[in-house]
Each structure stands twice: as structure tokens, then as C-alpha cells.
Amino acid sequence: xxxxxxxxxxxxxxxxxxxxxxxxxxxxxxxxxxxxxxxxxxxxxxxxxxxxxxxxxxxxxxxxxxxxxxxxxxxxxxxxxxxxxxxxxxxxxxxxxxxxxxxxxxxxxxxxxxxxxxxxxxxxxxxxxxxxxxxxxxxxxxxxxxxxxxxxxxxxxxxxxxxxxxxxxxxxxxxxxxxxxxxxxxxxxxxxxxxxxxxxxxxxxxxxxxxxxxxxxxxxxxxxxxxxxxxxxxxxxxxxxxxxxxxxxxxxxxxxxxxxxxxxxxxxxxxxxxxxxxxxxxxxxxxxxxxxxxxxxxxxxxxxxxxxxxxxxxxxxxxxxxxxxxxxxx
Amino acid sequence: xxxxxxxxxxxxxxxxxxxxxxxxxxxxxxxxxxxxxxxxxxxxxxxxxxxxxxxxxxxxxxxxxxxxxxxxxxxxxxxxxxxxxxxxxxxxxxxxxxxxxxxxxxxxxxxxxxxxxxxxxxxxxxxxxxxxxxxxxxxxxxxxxxxxxxxxxxxxxxxxxxxxxxxxxxxxxxxxxxxxxxxxxxxxxxxxxxxxxxxxxxxxxxxxxxxxxxxxxxxxxxxxxxxxxxxxxxxxxxxxxxxxxxxxxxxxxxxxxxxxxxxxxxxxxxxxxxxxxxxxxx
Lengths: 330, 282
Known about the structure:
The complex is a heterodimer.
Chain A: E1 2-6, E2 12-14, H1 34-43, E3 62-66, E4 71-74, E5 78-86, E6 90-91, E7 94-95, E8 102-104, E9 109-111, E10 117-125, E11 129-130, E12 159-162, E13 184-190, H2 199-207, E14 210-216, E15 220-224, H3 235-241, E16 247-252, E17 257-259, E18 266-269, E19 276-279, E20 281-285, H4 290-293, E21 301-306, H5 309-329
Parallel strand pairs in A: 13-21
Antiparallel strand pairs in A: 1-4, 1-12, 2-3, 3-10, 4-9, 5-8, 5-10, 6-7, 6-9, 11-12, 13-20, 14-15, 14-21, 15-18, 16-19, 17-18, 17-20
Helix pairs in contact in A: 1-5
Chain B: E1 2-10, E2 15-21, H1 26-42, E3 47-52, E4 56-61, H2 68-82, E5 87-89, E6 92-99, H3 102-111, H4 116-123, H5 128-135, E7 140-145, E8 152-156, E9 172-175, E10 179-183, E11 186-189, E12 194-196, E13 199-204, E14 230-235, H6 238-249, E15 257-258, E16 261-263
Parallel strand pairs in B: 6-14
Antiparallel strand pairs in B: 1-2, 2-4, 3-4, 5-16, 6-13, 6-15, 7-8, 7-14, 8-11, 9-12, 10-11, 10-13
Helix pairs in contact in B: 1-2
């Protein structure tokens, strides 16, 4: 068992998510940075599950934390690993490395501290966090208040159960295939409604700096930049979609879609993606860069780079191959 | 506009959309839903999600198990199979509603906005009693479910029953669970307490999202209303409301659901006709 001494800013139980229910408005949820999540599980010999919205049995549940991590006490000897954004964790006050299998003894206190680079980190514990699954997954769906630990972020005094594991982790150190930096480039494909934006605005989208605001969570991350102009809309779209310049007849919003309500700001949809939306989407973050989106900190600046579907597929295949290679080395 | 044949296009590197048109037409919606149903039944390997919207079906696919080309081939075959369908399965679900309920009044008073149901009645040239009569006489169609778990819009199938209402200019930060809201020509049921911008006209006595459902009317994921269902909102009094709440609390309430199908032609071929259909997300 693990006692939560301090919860951090928003620490939630996350696994590889629960795909298959989008048609009921149920987002996959799960780890926002799936690469760091899966590699953390590899380090403690847990099953790591598939990438978001892919098929396969879910991986073990970990803790996801953002910007400020939790302080936790372990009641039993176990193995852990910390991955994701750059934190400076300590065990009983002594610094410990990330991206490495660590053995902790009963009574040890792990303090994750604040993120120095990037936003989201993961704590994998041998056996996985044991909460009641909902629809086959232990992921917390924060915006709906379901799944994980009572459907919410952890609080001081919470006690987490750990599942039994027969696997004994080998001590491993790995290098993250994700480059987490302070300047971000997100690769995107043209969005479903790119043609609604003027050519000047499409140019501005790709050639200007965009600053992430503090309004950024697992559902959507908002960015500020130049105002984008849209072409006048057909009468039936105004009637059936709404009066805003970017209002459309509601359609499916893919994971990573970038909505531009009224042309005033960008909302990049995260791992708790609302399945349907009513705003024009100028671009979609490619699957391989969802983990990068998860690591952007408020007030940091990003640029968007356009790629075609072949490049998006290649980037995803490379990322999956890097994760697979590390799993096989285990 | 109707796309004939329907168009296939990528929304992202792992979402393929099949698009039936660009109107908010219930007939196009029914065609999209029939395709979605056939695709699910076909159980194409590598298909992760089949997610219908107004006149579109998005297919999330696992690239390690199916190529885009094979998925497009499978989609085109199913499109041919459903091209000439004239009916689609459609349940009729009765939702008991306490119209002009005290919670909606209380929220409006707290916000300092007009009594919502009176404002909606006035905007439609009706008294509150006439508005309730009209709302509870119509059969509503659920074109899509989504945004958040179990959230849906429904629209009156017959235009003469349509009620129009403006959205809040500044959305509320709080709406009680099970509130019945109106905006545009759509009616929604808020599955859980949430922000919202639809005018509050009543409160359903039954839950539409129960994470651990007991009644077979629900899917296993706890969502009652499915795209393609029809809803009849039935007027109940405060005593009946309390009785039904007690039964749902005891997990003993029997949901009123009638299986059936509907002739797509009765849904009208295009929204260019005289009955505008306004489907918006909250």
C-alpha cells in the first residue's frame, strides 16, 4: 500500500485507457504521455498496454502527475520507476534517478517535487496501482469523475493498494525516446475544416508562435496567438451550426484536433477528448506528438509544422518501434 | 447537400470519416447510423471505434492491424449493403419530466436570469402550459450522443412541434444532473451536473448515465440513450417525480423502452425543407 502524504497539483491513476466507447461520449482517458507511461511499466516488469486508441489489453495502472508531483510513503518493499518530464525526485531525502528501476524499502518516502522541464511525469510501481476497473480500465476520467481512485485526483490521506506481481524486475536504465525541451514543435496534419480559414490565416497558423495558456488540462490545451479569420459560411451552416465564425454542424473531433472557436484561440484536444464538437478544426496533432502535447508547460511557446499522412505514419511507427525495442531488451 | 456516393476522408492519421452530406438532416443522420450499425456488426479487424455524428461516421482504426486502403475497401462494401435500406432500428424511450421544476427556478434566480421556461414560452408565442403540452406531445429523434458521457441532443421529428430557444450568452457554471435543456431546436438531458448554456425547462426523474447500470435498457457502459433512439418526454407531477426517484435510488425502476424501427423517409430527406433542425453541442 502507498500513503499519500501530499497529493501534488493533480495526481491521477492512469493506465493505457479505455477505447471503444467514443460513440457514447466516453473518452479513452489513460496516460496523456503514453510513451513515458509505457516505459515506466517496462522498468518494473509490468504489462504496458497499447498506445492511445489502439487495441490490446490495458497496461498496469501508474500515477500521472503534472508540474508538481506527490509525496508518498510505501508500506512495503517494492520496485518503482519514475519517467516523463524532468523532475528531481528523492527517496528519504536522497536524490534518485529517473528512467531507472529503483528498489524502495517499507517506510520509504518518495518526494517527486516540481517539474524542471516538461509537464507530466509517471510513477510505475511493480504490480501496478490496484483500483476497481471501469469498462476494463483503471484510468481516471477526470472531467467525468469516473474511473481510477474514486474518479478524482489524489488527496492527502488517500491510501492506494498495489496489485501482486510474480515478475521480478531486472535493474534497468533507459533513455527516453521523447525529447522533452523548452521549445516545442508539434507536427500536425491539415484539419477537417482547414478550408474554412483564409489562406492568410492558415499561413499565420504555421508561421507564428503560439503560447499555451494556464487553461490546459487532459481534455484540451488552449493556445494564444494571432486572431485567425474564417471565410463567410453557407446559410445552412449558420442556421444549423450557430452564429460564431467557426461554428459548424457538430462533427467528430479526433484526438489531437485543434479547434479555433470564433478564430480567437486554439484548443488542442487531449486524451480526454470530447467525442463531438461544434467548432472548425484547422489541424490535427499527429499521434506520435500527443505525448509532446502532454509535456508542454503553460506559457511555453510552440510552433506547428505541417506533415502529410505518410510522414505521420512513419513518425508513429518509429515511436512504437522505439518502445518495442526497449520492451524487448527487458 | 447529400454526398452520393458518401465521401471518405481522413480526419487524422487514425480516424477515417465516412460523410453522407453536409446538412443537419435527420434522414442523412439515419443513413449514417445504419452504416455505423452495419460496420459494427461486420466486426472488421482493426476497427477500434465507430463514432457517428450528424451526417458522418468516424472510424478509429489500429494501423498495426489494418491498412487505410483495406479499411476504405471494407467501408465501401458496407456502404453498398446499406445503400437501399429504407428502415433503421429505433427504440422509443419514455423520459418522465417534471416541467417547470424548482431546481431550474432556483438556478435561474441565483444567476439573476429570467425564469427559463417562461422565457422560452414567450419566445415561441406560447404560455408555459402550452409549451409543456407541445414539448410532451412530440416524438424526438436522438441524432448523436457524445461530447461527454451519455450527453445527447434530441429534435422533434415533426417540425410543427419544434420549439426554438436561444442559448445563454454566458454559459452557466452549474446545471443540476438530469436537467432538461432547450437551445436552437434541440432538447438535451444533462447526464451529470455540469456547466451548460441550454435553457432549463424541467428535470427528468430518471438517470440517463449510470456507471453501474441495473436495467437492460442501458448499455454496459452506463449510457441509456443511443443515437437513433426516439424519446417521448412525458409530463409528471411532483409526487410521481418523488416516487420514480425513490425507485431509481433502490435500483428497482423499470425503464420504459419499446423496441422498434423507423422508416427513413419519415425523417425527411433534407433540412432545406421547411423544418430547420438545429443540433448544437453544449
